[in-house]
Amino acid sequence: MDFTANRRRLNQPIINDSLSELYRHDLNMYVDPPSQSISLSEFEDIALQRVQLFRIIEQASLKGHKLYTDDWKECIKGDLSKATLKSFIRLMQPYNGQTEADHQARRIDHISHFILRVAYCRSEELRRWFLSRELEWFRLKFSEKSAESIRSFLELYKLSYTPISDEEKMELREELTQSTSGIFVFDTTAFYKVPFTEVCPLVKNRRVLLKGGYAYVPSYELVVPILSKFRADLSAALTFYNRRLPLFDDDRINPLLTNLHRVHTGNNYVVRENTDSVDPANLDAYSKKHFPLCMRHMHDVLRAEHHHKHQARLTYGLFLKGIGLLYEDAVRFWRDEFTKKMDSGKFEKSYLYNIKHQYGKVGRMLNYTPYSCMKIILTNVGPGEHHGCPFRNWDPNFIKQKLVEGGISNENANEIKELASGGHCQVACGKYFEYSHGKAAANGINHPNQYFEESVNLEKGNAESKK
Question: Vertex 257, ends 253 and 258: CA angle to 5°?
Fold first, then answer.
């Protein structure tokens, strides 16, 4: 994983150090790249684990929990437990354990971080997403650590933050009490003397005492200067990795690294035998009540123009398959629509194979799954094409216009428009769900078929309540 290495150096034998020496603390500044050799299957597995971790962290905010609150942390722990990502839960414990399980958890954390560096250094958008999640993950771990564990971390990374003496603390008691924000017990809280330029967010919000060019930072805010250094170092490293990407041309792992952000880690929405089928006659009603904006738009265009280009047919076709449209019904649905513009022979010759392929009837006979939000968001959209995420590809004013036409209030449409303008596509979609249904989605929005499923379940729940 060392980008400074040439091919000759990469082929040299790797020296395996003891895990207990390499991984002495749960908190990691990721200064040195890993030097151990791992199998391709483990490489892929731990990369996907970290992507899933970051999506769980991101989803916790989408569920309405404020960052770093106890509810936010408990939500993350609960979702990590459901996803059986126990190694990351172990890193959130207060003490700094030294068991074999602790060392293995730190090893996974370390290696997966550097794998994702390579995967996410490829564009400004990916770098920004990765950097935000890494900062949240670091702060989450830091906030769970005891004072003793934090001291050992500072010593390990030679971070020159030492608490002020008891004498100085007592001299400044009144000033510290009045100038320091947050709930704390003065006698048991350690204060650190830090150059004020390293804690600009605290200074800006008037949350610390300033004196003689130094900020007196309470122990629970010490993460701010550490995060500042972590952000600067990681940002520079991602830029460096981006420049070195041409040197990293391994055909065995390039497909994974290139497509890692598109990989869906949740429910694949594969149609099974016991899945309730959907009647094509109900699709118009479903599109208005239960479809996310991307699928509703493709359905409306199909009804109006009686045609879609390849990528829209694939995206919308797999979505319909995922909600329960059977193969025979899908053929009938697409044929009825397309033959309003062409004869049946052209449809059979040019478009039927594509439907058969989606349902695993031809080709490699695979049971293809619907596209996730992330895959749709990152798909390129050309002129005359109607797939892709509206919250990413549409003009903000057009988004607002369509939302208002769909019954969203002007105020709520403005909020969604601002979220989309800021690049928060899935958050915007979550708000669209909330304002369309009067209730937020239970797990945020990360898949069009999840949107449909939650919408239908909400309608069923409301019907049961009325009964």
Answer: 115
